[in-house]
Amino acid sequence: MIDLRLLEHLCAFADCGTLSGAAQRLHTSQPTLTRSMHRLEELLGVPLFIRGRNALTLNETGRKAAEYAAYVLAAGADFEEKVRAYDRSLHTLSIGYCAPVPQTVITPLINTLFEGMTISADMTDDRLFCEKLLNRTYQLAVLHEPPDDPRIFHAVCGHEDLYISVTPDSPLASRAEIRLRDLDGLSILLLSRIGFWETMHRTGTPHARYLLQTDRASFTEVAAGSTYPVFSSGYYLRRGESIPGRINIPITDPSCHTDYYLACLASEKDRYAPLFSRIDAHTIW
Amino acid sequence: MIDLRLLEHLCAFADCGTLSGAAQRLHTSQPTLTRSMHRLEELLGVPLFIRGRNALTLNETGRKAAEYAAYVLAAGADFEEKVRAYDRSLHTLSIGYCAPVPQTVITPLINTLFEGMTISADMTDDRLFCEKLLNRTYQLAVLHEPPDDPRIFHAVCGHEDLYISVTPDSPLASRAEIRLRDLDGLSILLLSRIGFWETMHRTGTPHARYLLQTDRASFTEVAAGSTYPVFSSGYYLRRGESIPGRINIPITDPSCHTDYYLACLASEKDRYAPLFSRIDAHTIW
DNA sequence: TAACATTACGTTAGCCGTAACGATA
DNA sequence: TATCGTTACGGCTAACGTAATGTTA
Questions:
Q1: How far is it, in rounded angstroms, from Cα A57 to Cα A79?
Q2: I need a labelling partner for A171 at 20 to 30 A (CA). Which of A199, B31, B114, B173 fits?
Q3: What CATH number does residue B151 fall under?
Q4: Strand D within 7 A of B25 CB
Q5: CATH number where B23 lies
Q6: Tens digits of per-residue pLDDT, A246-279?
Q7: Which positions of chain C lie under 7 Å from any protein Cβ?
Q8: Strand B152-166 vs strand B247-250: parallel, antiparallel, or unpaired?
Q9: Can you give the residue range of the structural domain that contains A217?
Q10: How close A24 gets to chain B, by Cα (Å)?
């Protein structure tokens, strides 16, 4: 059973070329290093050094030993790292959201169902969500398209419709419904960090000029105090949280109506069963 | 920097399921084990056990940790193993000989040139000698055919001719020369452990009945006291070491005349240069 | 003389085993 | 009551740092 400190000392010496140098680097004394090197040779029963009267050099075996030692040290460090990471992985739940509304709806559910766990939520376009589930970056993900992979389990967890909110004096205000192309070219107020919606907007209205707001407070303030059209979610409108003085017109494009799919690794389905049983596929948020 | 003993203790506990069992296996006391486990948890900052009032069980993290620990321990053991093996490899010279005569000739040379090294000689058919040089089973090899691999350096190091030694009353005694097929079907006395010669004999005289002698002393004794023909090497005949009362007749088959090739890894050519410079390609042993 | 490795020596941190304790089946 | 894990305590090993020694450039 070898003492890893000996290996550390050996590696330091191999790097520095001198015991005093190594001692400095390791914040210890030369005698300690001398002893370690002797102990190492004795333990292995093999000479590792060429000893001059006042110079110490690694011999061929010593160089190989230092090389192997680095590997063992790495394994030891990895051990601590991996164990801590594993423990952390048991106590953290990383979730990828493709849009803000699912986050708003599902986060409280998760908080109550997995109490004591650290929840880490990610908000981004969901193109890579399957990979991120498979490589364990996420334990859960909410996508706007059903994942097509037998290793991934999923269930519909909700639905969202998009509206456009305009001021009464807007030329669009009288319309019963709107298409995305009607908005193309306009200046539109938009929250940033809205997941796949951003990609959808950019492709659906390539010539619109988006005025990005990074936080919801300033977004609502600017929206209330300006005439820029803004996108609104049916989820908020249904809860009465529309912007004061705005008319909300439904958008007819299919891309503005989406189902959401809650997904996890099929192998971890059981762990998240309580969550899946609580989501109601028929609720239109 | 983790103490490998802690990992050993953890693995023992994981195997035994109980601290007392692990303590027995490790020839130590339960308190030591208790302390090790606590220390490990403290060091990692992560719980590894489920503690009942008088029962200790690994939790999920603990099981993973034990798994990793086994790996680290193996790396540590490997370290000692590998370093010792490397040192040994520097001090031992393994040589493959395809025939006894090259061994007789070259061994003393090697002993003087590489004094202090452990010489390990192998005597066998040389079909695999190239591979064995490449995978470092041998550092040197003597083959009876030139190795055809750019990674292997070689030089002709000698030549051997085979004779057949018969008693004067043998029907073959009057012949000036002999072919192998003249011997096929006879009972022939043969030393074992003669490298590729054995294969050669078996194929050259498939119907001969070979009386194998495992050591040279009994071989010469039986040879002198019987009328069985025996193969003799030109090397020994030229040194006057023929069997008393025998007539030595040259064998004309090309397979009974061979050059020998001393070979080593091209990358180690320099290390064995003194040896190569001492072998004289023009000497017919 | 400065830098190096090694040896000597006294100190101490920390680990171990014995023993005692508490809990459980 | 036997087995298990934990805690307490005393002894001792073994590693450390300081200081001294010897050698080299």
A1: 31
A2: A199
A3: 3.40.190.10
A4: no
A5: 1.10.10.10
A6: 999 999 999 999 999 999 999 999 999 999 998 8
A7: 3-8, 15-19, 22-25
A8: antiparallel
A9: 159-257
A10: 18
